[in-house]
Amino acid sequence: MKVLKDILYKVSINAVVGDTGIAINAIHFDSRKIGNGDLFVAVKGTVSDGHSFIEKAIELKAVAVICENLPEILIDGVTYVQVDNSNSALAILASNFYGFPSENLKLIGVTGTNGKTTVASLLYQLFKSAGYKVGLLSTVKILVDNIEYKATHTTPDSLTINKYLKEMNDEGVEFCFMEVSSHGIHQCRTEGLLFEGGIFTNLSHDHLDYHNTFAEYRDVKKTFFDELSENAFALVNVDDKNGLVMLQNTKAKKYTYALKSYADYKAQILENQFGGLLLKVNDSEVWTKLIGNFNAYNVLAIYATAELLGLEKVEVLRLVSDLESVSGRFQYLISDDKITAIVDYAHTPDALKNVLETINSIRTKNEELITVVGCGGDRDKTKRPKMGHIATELSTKVIFTSDNPRSEDPDEILKDIEKGVEPQNYKKSLTIVDRAQAIKTACQLAQPNDIILIAGKGHESYQEINGERFDFNDYKTVQEFLKQLQK
Ligand SMILES: CC(=O)N[C@H]1[C@@H](OP(=O)(O)OP(=O)(O)OC[C@H]2O[C@@H](n3ccc(=O)[nH]c3=O)[C@H](O)[C@@H]2O)O[C@H](CO)[C@@H](O)[C@@H]1O[C@H](C)C(=O)N[C@@H](C)C(=O)N[C@H](CCC(=O)O)C(=O)O
Ligand SMILES: Nc1ncnc2c1ncn2[C@@H]1O[C@H](COP(=O)(O)OP(=O)(O)OP(=O)(O)O)[C@@H](O)[C@H]1O
């Protein structure tokens, strides 16, 4: 139980009608979750407007309402607080309600188009190995030290974030690594949180269904760095042309990392093969089991972050060499008949290009590289032909298949993807709507030493077709088919 006026601390308020001395049991922005004594925050969404559920919330015994527009009829005994932006108010309320949990641990946010999950999860792994109690808020899972919860979003809503941070406080967690998505920043989910550091991985074409233009997408990412405090660090990849943009207006201490450009943490790749990467970072040699150019960037960001958070260099070198790859992120197996299958979450043109270039830079070129890939439904359609183009340009064979079609017709998605295939590559590709069948066909086509890449779904344990989720896992599926079909 908290008193309303206490949880309104630092919320920018336009008007109050009613008593702010009342007790609040819980906060919700979904009227369906309201119970006796709760506070309802009316948020304007894309499908509906939370303001239209105020009446419903009061019927369910909400005692206070936060809204951008006061309802025409006000109910006696209910307190109404009018604000400019309900999402922003929600974030501040959540932090107040849970007792400022981000201030009781070191919170590090990882943002960028690709690499957020990898960097955040590996930092969790590294700090755990160093003996700390650690938290993780990621697309794959949420971890309150050793307690695991299912993740539903890359960056959960502000109430959920603060709830988990509070639980981390209770468990004595010292460091928390969280992914910060552009949707999250735009919807103020991270507002009011105290960050110890922010990491920028890269920025490429993505989420333009949500953000209208690339510039808007970039500027949203930038606000995360603009809002860091002067005690925090901002660590950015300056090989990405938007890296320095992120640092332009930040008060935080600025650090850079790069493979090509001048940077505080500058690395050179000495070895890159299936088995591991050897990097020279400033004056130290850093070895890791992770492979591929993009992981060189990820490892560099992790190395720098560990140092910035005060770990000893010698310890960091040892811990980096022990890191294991993250589920569905360049996760690979080699079958008994020497077929390599790689499962990767690459679901953007840039990520797919990176993965294929990584494989091509490691393989001998005598083998086939068979790519199985699709694109999700109800998401950015402009990336479909781009992914079709990239897959066929950089593989020797391609099987286009369904990703998560969601509410869209899978055949129509596949047609969009096929539009990106150049005429000279027509013969390289075939289309099989059923994902399991597509993976099976890739396994049948593969000969010893060939490489199969299954891209797009990574760690996911389901496939969403027509609004329904069916059990499905790329790694398990390819593992089983390779066993069954052993040559
Ligand atoms: C597309 C998008 O971002 N949607 C956000 C939007 O939801 P919406 O517009 O669909 O909401 P709505 O259904 O119109 O409802 C509006 C409000 O009325 C409330 N409501 C609704 C029905 C009802 O009976 N009672 C009620 O109170 C809802 O709880 C909501 O607060 O407004 C909601 C409230 O702020 C957000 O929670 C929701 O994000 C949801 C969680 C979402 O799935 N977003 C995705 C796209 C997302 O955030 N993805 C990023 C990363 C992606 C990536 O990197 O790949 C992420 O961080 O996960
Ligand atoms: N630093 C990087 N640069 C470019 N591509 C990367 C990088 N790190 C990983 N990738 C590729 O992008 C895919 C997604 O990686 P990861 O899940 O870490 O990114 P993410 O930012 O969390 O994406 P999402 O929010 O969509 O999950 C990986 O499987 C890999 O193919």
Automatic annotation (TrEMBL):
One of its GO terms (biological process) is regulation of cell shape. It is found in: Cytoplasm. UDP-N-acetyl-alpha-D-muramoyl-L-alanyl-D-glutamate binds at residues 31, 154-155, 181, 187, 189. Carboxylation is probably crucial for Mg(2+) binding and, consequently, for the gamma-phosphate positioning of ATP. It is an enzyme of class 6 (ligase). The modification N6-carboxylysine is found at residue 221. One of its GO terms (molecular function) is UDP-N-acetylmuramoylalanyl-D-glutamate-2,6-diaminopimelate ligase activity. GO terms for cellular component: cytoplasm. Its EC number is 6.3.2.13. Keywords: ATP-binding, Cell cycle, Cell division, Cell shape, Cell wall biogenesis/degradation, Cytoplasm, Ligase, Magnesium, Nucleotide-binding, Peptidoglycan synthesis. Residues 24-98 form the Mur ligase N-terminal catalytic domain. Meso-2,6-diaminopimelate binds at residues 379, 403-406, 456, 460. Pathway: Cell wall biogenesis; peptidoglycan biosynthesis. Residues 328-458 form the Mur ligase C-terminal domain. ATP binds at residues 112-118. InterPro entries: Mur-like_cat_sf, Mur_ligase_C, Mur_ligase_C_dom_sf, Mur_ligase_cen, Mur_ligase_N, MurE/MurF_N, UDP-N-AcMur-Glu-dNH2Pim_ligase. A motif (Meso-diaminopimelate recognition motif) lies at residues 403-406. Residues 110-305 form the Mur ligase central domain. Belongs to the MurCDEF family. MurE subfamily. This is UDP-N-acetylmuramoyl-L-alanyl-D-glutamate--2,6-diaminopimelate ligase. It comes from Seonamhaeicola maritimus.
